[in-house]
Structure formats: C-alpha cells, structure tokens
TrEMBL record:
Classification via Pfam families: GerE, Response_reg
Keyword annotations from UniProtKB, A to Z: DNA-binding
Name of the protein: DNA-binding response regulator
GO-annotated biological processes: phosphorelay signal transduction system; regulation of DNA-templated transcription
Family matches, as InterPro entries: CheY-like_superfamily (IPR011006), Sig_transdc_resp-reg_C-effctor (IPR016032), Sig_transdc_resp-reg_receiver (IPR001789), Tscrpt_reg_LuxR_C (IPR000792), WalR-like (IPR039420), WH-like_DNA-bd_sf (IPR036388)
Amino acid sequence: MKNNEMRIRKLDSSVLVAKEEPFSCEVLSKLLEREGFDVVGRANELDDLIQKIHTKKPKCVIVEANLIGKETNHLLKELSESSSPPKLVLYFNNSNSKELTKALDANFQGYLYSEDRLEELYKCLLYIQTQSKYYSDGFKDLIKKQGLNEIDSDTQQKLKTLTNREKQILYLVTEGLTGYEISDSLCISYRTLANHKQNLIHKLGLSSNRQLLKFGLQIKSHINTL
C-alpha cells in the first residue's frame, strides 16, 4: 500500500528539468521518468525555461544554479505572474558565499548540492509536495562551511518589512558598534537611533536590544543594506 501511495505521489508531480548541458539534462529526465515522475519538459536556457513554465505548467521545476546566473529576480518575477507557480528545486554547484546568500534569499522550496545522490533529489521532490522547505544534508554542510545558515519563511517576511535604514542599523549592531558610533556613522541623532531600534525590536517580534543583537548575528549574511 505504501509503495502504491508513493507511486501516485510521483505521478501527481509533473516536473520540468532545466540544466545547461543538454546531455546531462536528458539523462536526469530519463532517470526521473524511470522512477515514475511525470517529466513534462526540458530546458537548457533561461528564456526557454520561462516559456515552458507558462506552457507546460509543471508543478515542480528542477533548475541548475548556473542556468539562472544573475537572473534570479527575473525568474521569480515571471513565476509571480503565473496563476499556479511551480515549486522550485535549486541545484547549487559552487561555494561562493555571495551566490549562496542570494540563493537562500530567493526562497526556493528545495535546495540541493550538485554532489548529492539522486536519492536525495527523489526525496526532495516528494517532500516539497506536502512540506514547505527541503535542504539536503550536502547543501546544509556547504552553507555551514561558509558561515551561513538557512532562514525560515517567517523570518524572511519579517526582514522584508524593514526599511533600508533599519537594515543598516541592524547590520551595524552586529558589527559591534556602540549606539553613539552608529549614530555618528549614519549622521543621525542618538534619539533617532533609539527610535529606529525600537521599531526594529517591534517588527522582529523581539523584546530587548540583547535579543536584537542575537537575532542580527544569526541572520547577518541575509541583511541586504544596499
């Protein structure tokens, strides 16, 4: 009974595979089909991927980080305009800390490392049908080596409510600057800084400056101060 349910879940998950190298894309597609997944298309370029997302309407997209490159925001914008956007599984294949941070901030549903075994991909595809996030052990090890960490969707939403000034202050707090040093560097009064900190504490659901520092250190790599 359990195997039958597993097969039904696989068949119910239409998949689009996007990898730069055509042969690798074809091989992965065939392996997924052999496992019972419904592969509805393949793509080797970003524009082709976006077009097929709109025409094939897959429930899940497996995409290689190199194929997206610096166009993550463009891809996410296109998906937001879809009536039923697919879940995205990212295959990450380098250890650049900036690229890792961007990948985590993109809020994909699944994160895999290029050296993960195929069983990890199968597990991920089944998991994200009913759960929100999947991080493979290989991907977790990769981000830990870079001093990063995954953050949940609730934390991401809280960070989106912060103004640029509040993000600047939160970042400077994590740098160990005193209140007077922060106010001097931003050319604002100490009173104004105190008000910003209170707003930060309120927006982030915290209760003290100590908690603000602890929170900031935990998500420091995700604070975009630009």
